[in-house]
Amino acid sequence: MLDHTDMGILRELSKNSRITMKELGEKVHLTGQAAAARVAKLEDNGIIERYTIEVDQPQLGCLIHAWINIYTKITHHQPYLSFIETQENYVLNNYKISGDSCYLLECRFPSNEVLDQFLTDLNKHVNYKLSIVINKL
User: Is 53 exposed, middle or buried (0-12, 13-18, 19+ CB in 10 A)?
Assistant: First the structure.
């Protein structure tokens, strides 16, 4: 079970995973050495799985942020999944979900033309419903 300090460590690492252990310790009222030991324990217990970065997609030229609900045509989903694996330049996340659709794709595209081609190719495997993000609040 995680205590208040562990939750604080996770919150701070989620904001900045490059923070020094000394800075982390100061934020959660521990020494740097104690903070490092807590982080190591969280890693060993599988609570912290990996460290990553958040990329500013518009800075990379991917201005179109799309969410796509996927409706499969058949019960065999492998053709769709294989297609998605080839689209790593555009697909940020592919979630298997419950509800009306089978999957939910989070994607980024540099232009409407690229999005249109992606949807044309996607439609060979599944039906879809597209939503475009207007603004992140």
Answer: exposed
Does the pLDDT at position 75 exceed 90? no
What is 4-44's CATH number, 1.10.10.10, 3.30.70.1140, 3.30.830.10, 1.10.760.10? Answer: 1.10.10.10
pLDDT at 1 > cutoff 90: no
pLDDT 10s digits, 89-110: 999 999 999 999 999 999 999 9
48 burial type by CB count under 10 A (0-12 exposed, 13-18 middle, 19+ buried): middle
